[in-house]
Amino acid sequence: KQEVTQIPAALSVPEGENLVLNCSFTDSAIYNLQWFRQDPGKGLTSLLLIQSSQREQTSGRLNASLDKSSGRSTLYIAASQPGDSATYLCAVYGSGNTGKLIFGQGTTLQVKP
Amino acid sequence: GAVVSQHPSWVICKSGTSVKIECRSLDFQATTMFWYRQFPKQSLMLMATSNEGSKATYEQGVEKDKFLINHASLTLSTLTVTSAHPEDSSFYICSARLRNYGYTFGSGTRLTVV
Question: Which of A34, A43, A106 sits opposite B108 (nearest CB)?
Answer without folding.
Answer: A43
